[in-house]
Structure formats: structure tokens, C-alpha cells
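Mods, move this if it's the wrong board.
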Amino acid sequence: SGASLRYSTGTGGEGSEGEGAGLASSESGGSGFSLAAAALPERRRPGGGRPRYEMVRELGAEEVRWFYREDRKTWKPFIGYDSLRIELAYRALGPGGPSEPREGEAAAVEPVCVRSGLYEVDVANAESYPVYWNQTEKIPVMRGQWFIDGTWQPLEEEESNLIEQEHLNRFKGQQLQESFDMEVSKPVDGEQAIHSLKLSRSHVDWHSVDEVYLYSDATTSKIARTVTQKLGFSKASSSGTRLHRGYVEEATLEDKPPQTSHIVFVVHGIGQKMDQGRIIKNTAMMRDTARKVEEKYFSNLATHVEFLPVEWRSKLTLDGDTVDSITPDKVRGLRDMLNSSAMDIMYYTSPLYRDELVKGLQQELNRLYTLFCSRNPEFEERGGKVSIVSHSLGCVITYDIMTGWNPVRLYEQLLQKEEEELEDRWMSYEEQRLLEELYITKQRLREIEERLHGLKASTISKPPVLKFKVENFFCMGSPLAVFLALRGIRPGNSGSQDHILPRTICNRLLNIFHPTDPVAYRLEPLILKHYSNISPVQIHWYNTANPLPYEHMKPSFLNPTKEPTSVTDSESVSTVPSPTTSPVMVRRHYGESITNIGKASILGAASIGKGLGGMLFSRFGRSSTATPQTLETGKDGAEGDDKKATTVGTPPFPHSSSGFLEPAVELEHRIDFELREGLVESRYWSAVTSHTAYWSSLDIALFLLTFMYKNDQEDTDKSNLDTM
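Not the wrong board. C-alpha cells:
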């Protein structure tokens, strides 16, 4: 508005003319602003409020605070570093901001990067938008000059501008009171207002330079004021809202987010077509939860972990609307939900659309990484690391991208097996001759293909599938194990992660699941079979005091003596104390907790297709194949121990030195990690909700950060020891 009076670039307003000129100079650019603002003396009152200058002047850049509002909630303040830079861009537009650009200059300013680089602010249009993902609704931003007492929420910008203009017109150059306690709001009883300003639906009274009150002009408010004043109360104490000029806390460039040392790509599973913004909301929940954990447990580190959503589904065309056109209209809502969610599994098992899904996720991962590095060039220079958190089907697609798995290989193996079977059976001379000719032709074709690939490789170096090395691959609620099992992967005799995911591709694989998640499967028994009888590692509760490091936790056993479907709650409780040092809890046999729900609960899901139905049905209807064992040393001699060592690989108890044989093979690192069940958790309900309950879990946030901050924490501890 033309009436708004904001900070002029030629005016000193920082306590001395020299400081003000240095800060306000538009020609100084970003660096000049930073140097001048950094040179400002920090003047805070004992109560922790903002500094006050001796004379009434225009508000300094550090007194103004910018705000943003998401989801129509309350205004949230930007941190000092962001607010100062937004204010610089605002003042670069001209004396009156966007409405009054300088003569001969276009009112265009570079967007300001805020909120740890995840968002940008368009100062001219007073809006913010995300950098790494698409969002239909822009986030409004506002410049705060006058604030409501107590909440420190900003007044609407139009009213704030009018009040600021009136305040400067009336009081500029006047002396401020030296003793001013912001913590106690004391209305001036009996004193008449020395100045007043009428607004559209309210008015403002100045009782002194520092005593400013806002009053509503609504009829009910006027009646209330009249009654309370007749009872002897002052106007200010009865219905006025005290206002403060300038924010409670001075904005400084030191109030800056830490450097990002680790980025985490969060990959969604099925159902994204149904709610395209879901992964953005889920990642925001995980990010906010991780911030709380960082503040509590990792505040001594000068870096932080950033979470970026990877939305790969909405850009894919796939079959267009063919599936929708063949969907009957009866129970349309349920059918649409299944088409938008479970249909993704059928798309992925289709040879026609699988590559489109893989390329969609691969391109989005590379796009995000390239964009992040272009905006943070120091990330790669400082050895920044990348991890991936995938959910549900996203785990399978991410795994296939990292390993380069393709169903064509499976087809070639099948053909080779058929050829071997043909060679074993009796055949006539003519058949043998034709088979030999076919074999020679295939060999010749393979040689030509290899030569052709060699020529291509010498001229054009093939770029890597992913542009970054994956440090940690976290799977949440993952069906990856059942996909690998159906591809023919069987347990080996090596305890290395390389059996399913080479360490050269990904340093660490971690499989997180809730015990009642019907879509999640274990990975460890695919590496070593006897781990089907060793329980997953229990994830520590968020508030556990001095938890034992995961690498020091000893295995505990599952000891099924009956089929899971026949085990009752009382019989399923293990009578042998667990050798783990984590808190002892009543634990049912793995898988029993959801078996009692019955096969009927997934009949509806099974009807959508063989892939999903078979996956879920095998989860609910499976029986235990683990070999029953006895942990009593008195009943078994050396022969029994030998048998157990070769069949289930029973680890010894910590206190045992010779009573048990050492297990044949152990895993190099544990892979399966299980959330603890709540004490009052309903298993019927959690079987439905657990698959989507990972995003806001404090336990999972602490677990993720524990592994991602592991090296940083060790380096910090080592430097502290060296200093001592």
C-alpha cells in the first residue's frame, strides 16, 4: 500500500548511522548484508527479549521477523538466518517493498532459499514453495513488525504497516523509557491515550511510546468495555490486547541450520496414485520426528540428516485408463481403491510395465540427487552420504535398481535348464544333429553380441544406474524377501549380506517391520536358514535409558514346539529366559500374532490377483518349518549338541563356556529389526494399521539416525577423548 512506511535503504536504523548504512546498502549485495549484520552488537535484555534503542527509529532488519503458514495453521517464524535474508531481498525491491520498486529497476529479486534449503521464498508475491517436490498450494509468507503480547503472533501485514507508519509519524526521534520489562504487561490504569488510530474493525491506543493496545470495535466488545469500565476497570485491562513493536528475539546470522552431512531419499510403495501428496506428508512426519530425536540425542553434532520424498508414481502413464474402463460399476469406490493401490503390484509383475516403474523411480532418484548437489556443491566435497528408506513395494523396486536385476535373466536360466534336460533324455540322430547345430548357432550369436557390447563400451562409457553410492538401505514393511524367494534365492552357508545385496553396492541393509505387519517378511533366513529360529533384533524404545548398542545385542531364540495355528497365548510364552540384555518381555512365536486373525481377513485382497493374494495368503497361512529344539543342557549330550549345531545353529548362552558348541555360521551384521509391540496394542487393529505406522514413530526415527550418525558420533567421541 502507498501508505505503508518501511525501512528506507538510505536510513540508518541500527543504533548508529554507520551500522544502519552498512546493513541497508542495496549495492552491497548478499555478502555486504551478511558482514554488516554479523557486525551488529548483540543487545539483549535480561529477560531474553529483543534489543531496544534509545530513540524511536525505523525497525532494523534484525527486529523484523518473517513468518510462514502451512495447512492454514498458525503463523510459524522463520529462523533468524532465513528471516534476515528474506528481509534483505524485500528491501532490495525498493522503499515500499513490492508495491514501490525503485525507478528504472525491475521489481525482480532472486528467490530466497529457506528452511534448510527445502523451500524458496518469492518475496514479491509473498509466497513460498518446495524445491524438491511439487505442491499445488503455495505457502503464504508474511512480514511481521507488530506482535500480539504473549503469543507473539504477527498482526496482519496491512494493519501492521498502518500502525508502524502512525507510530513513526507520531513518535520518531522521541526518547524510549530505559526501564522496560517485557515479561510483565502492566496496563496504565487511569491514563488516557495520548494517541489513537482507527482501523477498519478495530482501533489502536498509545498510552505511551511503549504502551500500545489494540481494541476491537465489534458491538459486543464495546458493550463489554463499557460495563467493565463502569465497574472501575481500566480500558486496557478490560478488553485491550497489548502490542509489541519488533519481534521478541533478535534475528542473527548465527541462528543458522547445520550443514547437511547425510541425505535420505524416502521411497513410497503402493497407493500413491490414490493420494499423490501422501509421500510428501509421510516424509514431513518422518523429518519432524527426526528433528525431535536430533535435538535430544545428537545435539552435540554440527551436522544433520535431511529427508527428501521420492514421488515416482504420478508421472507414469502405464495403461492409461484401460483398467478403469474395464472395471464394473458395482462397489465402484472399493474397486477404485484397489485399482489405485494393489494394482501397482500387478503392474510390477507385468513384463510390459515393469521397466516403466523401474525407470520412473531411477530417474527421480538421480534427478533429486543432481538437484541437491547443484544447490549444495560442498556436499560431495565433504564426503556427504546417501541412504534410502523404502516402504512396501518401493523396497523391491529400489533393490532391483541397485542390483540391476531383470526378469530376462530368469528366462535365460530357465532356457538353459530346459536344454540340460533335453541333453539327458534319449533322442534320435536327427534330433541330436539339430540340437548341436542350434547350440553352435547360439554360441556364435553370443560371441557377436559380446563383441558389439565391447565396441559400444569403448566409445560410450555407460553411466551408472544411480549417480551415488548407497550407504544404508532401510526397508520398512517390506515384501522384498518373498520376491527374492520366488526368484529362486535360497539360503547359503555364508553369513554375509553379499548373498542378497553386495556391500560394493550398498554398505548396509536393514529390514524394519512391525510384528503384525501383514506385508512384511524377514530377510535373514534367506542368508542363513537357521536364523528362522532366531528372533529379529528388538528396536529400542525412544525413551530407553542407556540402550545397549545393536551390534552388542546377543541373539535370542524362537522356540516353537507346535504349529503356530495351534499355539495358545499361554502356551506360546517362552519359558526360557532370553539371553539378550534388552528388557525381558513376554514374546509370542514370530508369526503367531497375526495367524489368529484367520485367512478370511485377506480373502478380499487375494481376489485382486495372484501376486498380491499369494503374497498375503502365504503370510497368514504359513506353518512353522523350524526344527523344534530343547535348550536344557541336561537332556542332550554331545551328540545332541552336534545335531543342533548342524540343523539350527543354536548360539551359546553368554554364561556357557563348554556346554554348547559354537554355531556353524553367524551373520556378519544383523539385518532384521522388529518394532516392539505396545502393551495395550490390539493385534486385530494393528494388523490393519501397522503397515502405515512407521512414518511418525520416534523409535524408528532414533533407529535410523543411530545408524546414519554412527561414524559422526564415533569421530566426535574420539576427538573428545583426544582432547581429554
